[in-house]
Amino acid sequence: MRDKVRSMFYHAYDNYMAHAFPHDELKPLTNNFTDSLSELGNLNLQFLPQNYNGSALSLIESLSTLLVLGNFTEFEKGVMWLSENLTFDVDARVNLFECNIRVLGGLISAHILASENKSWFRNISYNDRLLHLARDLGQRFLPAFETPTGLPYAWINLKHGVMENETTETSTSGCGSLILEMGALSRLTSDSRFEGAALRALRKLWNMRSSLDLLGTTLNVLTGEWIEYSSGIGAGVDSFYEYLLKAYILFGSDEYWDMFHSAYLAVQKYFRHGPWYHEADMRSGKATYWQLTSLQAFWPGLQTLVGDVAAANLSHREFFYVWKKYGVLPERYLLEHATLHPTERYYPLRPELAESTYYLYQATKDPWYLEVGESIVASLNSHTKVDGGFASVRDVSTMQLEDHQHSFFLSETCKYLYLLYDDSFVAGRNFVFTTEGHPLPVRSLWHERLPEAYITSNRTSFKTSRMSPLSSQVCPEMIRGAKVESACHVPDLRVNHRCTSDAECGIDSTSCRKRTCSIAGYCGLWRFVH
C-alpha cells in the first residue's frame, strides 16, 4: 500500500512538473495549467499581469511530501528553483487565507526541515532563502489587517495592498486560521508583527461569539458584525477550531486552550446529533441545516488529538459510509433525506477523510483503518486517475471529471495516505500539521510554558483518578491504562444531579449522549438520540 501511494504521488507530481510547472496547478485532462493562487474564489483574471508565470504553488505544496517519501534530491532541486526564481512582487490579488495556508505555510515548513537537515543538500548550501521569501510574503499580508476591528480583509494585492472597493466580507476560517503560520514566522524571524496581527484578529473574533460560545460563518471586517449566523464545523469555520487546539500545542499558551475548550464543548452541545454534526444558529443553538459537508471529515482527526477517540470513531465510520456509497465523498450530503445535495455534488480530491483515518490509526492501531485507507486509494485510482494526473470529480453520481488537480492532493491527500502505511518520517518526532498538511515541529523554545501535566514527575498521579484528556490538558499517550472520560463530557449543572429542565443536564462522559431531566427531577440517560 505504501508503494501504491508513492506511485500515486509521483503520477500527480511528475505530470505537474511536465505540463504545468512553474504555474500553480495542473489541468490533467488537457495537460495544461492554471494559476490558481490568483483564481481562488473565482477571481477575475484582469488582476494578473501578462508576464505572470505563477508561484509554482504545487511545487511549494509538494516539498514536505517529497521528504516524507524520502526524496531528498527532488526536495533540493525544488528549494534551489524557488530560491532563484520565486518572487511575490507581482500585481496579483490573492486570497489571504489560501495564500497563508498554502504558500506561507509551505515555505515555513520547508525552511524548518531544510535548516534542521542541511546534510540533505549535495549541490547547494542552504542559506535560509525560503525564510526570506516567507518573511517577504508575510509583510505583504500585513496591510490586510489595517481595519478598525483588526480583522483582515479576505483579499490582498501582493504589490499594492488592499484594492479600492475591496469586499469587506470574510469567513470565520479566513480571519481565525492564520495563527500557526504567522506565529511560526514571528518565532523564526523575531518579528512580532506577524503573530501580533493574527492574534489580534483571533481575539476579536472570539469576542464576537454568542452567549452560547458559538460563532457564525461570515462577517464584515470593518464593522465586526456577523453576516451569516448559521454555522457548523464545516466550510467557513472548520480550521478555526483546528487552529485553536494546534496553536495551543505549538505555542503552549493557555489562552488558545481556553478558547478551544469552550468552543469544543459548545460544538458537542449544539451541533452534535448522534455521530453527525448539523449546523445551528449561533444565537439560539437551534438547528438550521441538516447536511454533511466533506470538509467536516477533518473533525474525527481533531477529536483524536484531544483523546476523544470513541466519538471520533463513530463520526469517522459515518463519513466512510458515505464514501463507500458514492465511491468518493460528495461536497454536501443531505442528512434528512440521505441523498446528494442538488448542486454541490463534486469531489475535488479532498484529503480530510484520509487525514482522520491516519490520526485514528495512530491512536488505536486498529487494522480496520488500514482497510479504510486501502479503499480510499482504490477509489482514487479507479475514479480520478487519468493519463495526465488525478482529476477532480464534477458529479459523484456520474463520476464525470473536472480538469483540475488541486495542490492539496499533493500536500495532504497523498501525504496522509502514505503516512498511514509508513510513518517513519514522523516516528519519534513531534509535529503539528497545518490545515494544509505542512508539518511544523513542536519546539520547547516556542512554548510560553509547558503545562504541569507534561512534567514527567506528575504522570503517575493520573492513574489514580478519573479524568478527561481535554480537562486535564494531557496527551492521551501519557495516561494509557487510566479510566479516561470522553472529552465531550459536560457536567450536570448541580453535583447532586437534580434538575428542573433538560437545560440543566449535561452530556454523558462515556457515551457522549445528551442527558435529560426525568419527571422525578434527576439528570440521566432517560432517552437516546439516534
Tell me the Rg in angstroms: 23 Å
> In which order are the strands of the major sheet placed?
5-6-7
Rounded to the nearest angstrom, the distance between the terminal CA atoms is: 36 Å
Q: What are the low-pLDDT stretches, counting only 5+ consecutive residues below 50? A: 39-52, 453-467
Shape: globular
Overall average residue pLDDT: 89
Figure out the total of helices. 16
Helix/strand structural class: alpha+beta
Number of separate strands: 22
The main pleated sheet reads as: 3 strands, antiparallel
- Specify the helix fraction band: 40-55%
| Quaternary assembly | single chain
Approximately how much beta-strand content do the residues carry?
5-15%
Describe the structure.
This protein has 530 residues and is α+β, with helices and mostly antiparallel strands. The chain is 40% helix and 11% strand. Strands 5-6-7 form a three-stranded antiparallel sheet. One of its GO terms (biological process) is carbohydrate metabolic process. InterPro entries: 6hp_glycosidase-like_sf (IPR012341), EDEM1/2/3 (IPR044674), Glyco_hydro_47 (IPR001382), Seven-hairpin_glycosidases (IPR036026). Belongs to the glycosyl hydrolase 47 family. Pfam families: Glyco_hydro_47.
